[in-house]
Design a protein that fits this description.
Largest sheet: 8 strands, parallel, barrel
Number of strands: 8
Number of domains: 1
Helix content: 40-55%
CATH architecture: Alpha-Beta Barrel
Shape: globular
Number of helices: 11
CATH class: Alpha Beta
Strand content: 5-15%
CATH superfamily: Homocysteine-binding-like domain
CATH topology: TIM Barrel
């Protein structure tokens, strides 16, 4: 599927699945060493591409079973200049990786799309710094410039959309949305929250969403929450206001532990897949527009299947 055929806003009623926790699955379940928690170097070798293919096919198969669409992420969460430098990748090499990631994802999606499944190839943009804390703070203009090359690489390779995942503060998110708008790509902004339901920056979810919409004239197609257990943000969603209607997706963690606890963990906490599914169902019962369903750290195919069993 291409941008000419798919408009994210026209899919507002559709249920779309995502995968689970890519990096945690590779590290804790497959026993891989991922320096800087980066999966994108796997694209550089045949064995790595095959491993990524096996990982994503299990989720595509679940979507196929339940007759829903799928948002197929590129494994590029760490493929930005700061993290790339730590891993000895130049900016030019990173652009090549980003374009390769889109082509690889498109080929992986092809058999499913040929059967009529909606598969959106999604260029994933991660935070400049750590996904659990605010480090380097950029203005929206600085963030737009910083992330612009990656987003242009996704566009040039034919991605359907981009998603800014695990955003810790609103200014960086706004800059990414502006860069996507400038590149002609639809964008999704996904914030992470702490156990109190606030972003690592201390901003409320409401303020962060409204700030991005104000800074970008409502450019993002929708917003998401990721890398937090539902128990961390359920109370926030109990409020009211138009901003809640902008939240279309959830990619929760399996564990109810805090970011600090997860960062220090040496073993995976898989939580309770059935309970996670029930929590997603409760969110869907209250907010029928939340239709992009997936997982983040600690989740695997069991969790996504349980979410489908509960919600579909």
């Amino acid at each position: 599927m291409t941008m000419a055929k798919i408009n994210l806003r026209e899919l507002s009623e559709a249920v779309l699945l995502t995968d689970g926790g890519l990096e945690t699955s590779l590290v804790f379940l497959d026993g891989l060493d991922l320096p800087s928690f980066a999966a994108f170097p796997l694209l550089g070798e045949e064995e790595g591409r095959e491993r990524l293919g096996r990982y994503f096919r299990q989720y595509l198969d679940i979507a196929d079973k339940y007759g829903v669409g799928f948002v197929l992420d590129t494994p590029t969460w760490r493929a930005n200049p700061d993290w790339g430098e730590k891993l000895c990748y130049s900016k030019k090499a990173l652009s090549g990786i980003d374009q390769q990631a889109v082509s690889w994802a498109r080929a992986l999606a092809a058999p499913y799309a040929a059967r009529g499944m909606i598969v959106l190839v999604n260029g994933v943009v991660g935070p400049r710094g750590d996904g659990y804390r605010v480090e380097t703070v950029m203005t929206p203009a600085e963030a737009e410039a910083y992330h612009g090359d990656q987003i242009k690489a996704f566009r040039d390779a034919g991605a359907d959309m981009i998603s800014a995942v695990t955003m810790t503060y609103s200014q960086e998110a706004a800059g990414i949305a502006c860069a996507a708008m400038g590149a002609g790509l639809p964008s999704v902004i996904s914030f992470t929250v702490e156990t109190d339901g606030r972003l690592p920056s201390g901003e409320s979810l409401k303020d962060a969403i409204e700030t991005v919409d104000d800074e970008t004239d409502g450019a993002p197609a929708y917003f998401m929450i990721n890398c937090a257990h539902p128990s961390h943000f359920e109370a926030v969603l109990a409020g009211d206001g138009g901003w809640l209607g902008r939240i279309r997706g959830v990619r929760a963690n399996a564990s109810a532990k805090s970011h600090a606890e997860l960062d220090a963990a040496t073993e995976l906490d898989p939580g309770d897949p059935v309970d996670l599914g029930r929590r997603y169902r409760a969110m869907r019962d209250r907010f029928g527009h939340i239709g992009v369903l997936g997982g983040c750290c600690g989740t695997d195919a069991r969790h996504i299947a349980a979410i489908c069993d509960a919600c579909l």
